[in-house]
UniProtKB/TrEMBL annotation:
Keywords, in A-Z order: Kinase, Thiamine biosynthesis, Transferase
Pathway of action: Cofactor biosynthesis; thiamine diphosphate biosynthesis; 4-amino-2-methyl-5-diphosphomethylpyrimidine from 5-amino-1-(5-phospho-D-ribosyl)imidazole: step 3/3
UniProt cross-references to InterPro entries, sorted A to Z: HMP/HMP-P_kinase_dom (IPR004399), PM/HMP-P_kinase-1 (IPR013749), Ribokinase-like (IPR029056)
Protein name: Bifunctional hydroxymethylpyrimidine kinase/phosphomethylpyrimidine kinase
Function as written in the Swiss-Prot or TrEMBL entry: Catalyzes the phosphorylation of hydroxymethylpyrimidine phosphate (HMP-P) to HMP-PP, and of HMP to HMP-P.
Chemical reaction(s) catalysed: 4-amino-5-hydroxymethyl-2-methylpyrimidine + ATP = 4-amino-2-methyl-5-(phosphooxymethyl)pyrimidine + ADP + H(+); 4-amino-2-methyl-5-(phosphooxymethyl)pyrimidine + ATP = 4-amino-2-methyl-5-(diphosphooxymethyl)pyrimidine + ADP
Gene name per UniProt: thiD
MF (Gene Ontology): hydroxymethylpyrimidine kinase activity; phosphomethylpyrimidine kinase activity
Length: 257
């Protein structure tokens, strides 16, 4: 049977990030993509103009509909908006026998908040403990742990600070550092350094969503975590290289590269 992957995330009306990026990634990687919408954003290449979260019952009902009938081999979480939604989703994940890729989305590239500040404690205490892989970028590491990374060497300290909260693996995304795009994947024992040349392309909207969805897609297909992350990194590197201009701001990564 075709592997089935579920994204629990926000909608990006511009089609570049969120649920829309997740489903495009899943299609490109040959799995069946499904979605639980947590929030709706009015969004384009210039930023987020508005965001509305769904009621917790609507999120729970979507999740149960999918998991109880169709089943999932992996789940990815993205924008969860509020403490209430973070806690409800963490409970659902704890109840699901499938790996969970948690992208602890905080703020968009344009600086728009996608998670309430009051939800950070719930991410730390409820969501990270049920993650198979957590995929924070350096801003999210700083928000969650207080660790500010300024060099590649600092990625180790960041990983240790996130692992304290209990995810099995953490992938620290060092893409905001100058030079090559370097990420560190570790479970506290093994270390995998992933390096890709930086593409001089500002059209990178949806990078984080794409990476996390690609990891979930490969986990659903049976890869180990290090193998899934390696394939996902190659996929997102291609998608960023092919990112294209749309609207008047930052365009999306391309899933048709
Ligand atoms: N909008 C939604 C709904 C998202 O889930 C995300 C990221 O996870 C973004 C926007 C931000 O995308 P980016 O920071 O790549 O522009």
């Amino acid at each position: 049977m075709r592997p089935r992957v579920l994204t629990v995330a926000g909608s990006d009306s511009g089609g570049g990030a969120g649920i829309q990026a997740d489903l495009k990634t899943m299609l490109a990687l040959g799995v069946h993509g499904m979605s639980v919408v947590t929030a709706v954003t009015a969004q384009n290449s210039r930023g987020v103009q508005g965001a509305w979260e769904l009621p917790v019952e609507a999120v729970r009902a979507q999740y149960r509909s999918v998991v109880d009938d169709i089943g999932v081999q992996a789940v990815k979480t993205g924008m969860l908006a509020s403490a209430e939604l973070v806690e409800a989703v963490a409970e659902l994940l704890a109840d699901t026998d499938a790996p969970a890729v948690v992208d602890p989305v905080g703020v968009s590239k344009h600086g728009d908040a996608l998670l309430a500040a009051s939800a950070l404690d719930s991410v730390r205490s409820r969501l990270l403990p049920v993650a198979t892989v957590a995929t924070p970028n350096l801003d999210e590491v700083a928000q969650l742990t207080g660790v500010h990374v300024e060099s590649e060497e600092g990625l180790r300290e960041a990983a240790a600070a996130v692992l304290v909260y209990g995810p099995r693996w953490v992938l620290i995304k060092g893409g905001h550092l100058p030079g090559d795009a370097v990420d560190l994947l570790t479970d506290g024992t093994e270390e995998h350094w992933l390096r890709a040349p930086r593409h001089d392309n500002r059209h990178t909207h949806g990078t984080g969503c794409t990476l996390a969805s690609a990891i979930a897609s490969r986990l659903a297909a049976g890869d180990s975590v290090p193998d899934a992350v390696r394939v996902a990194k190659a996929y997102v590197t291609g998608a960023v290289a092919a990112g294209f201009a749309l609207g008047g701001g930052i365009g999306p990564v391309d899933h048709g590269w």
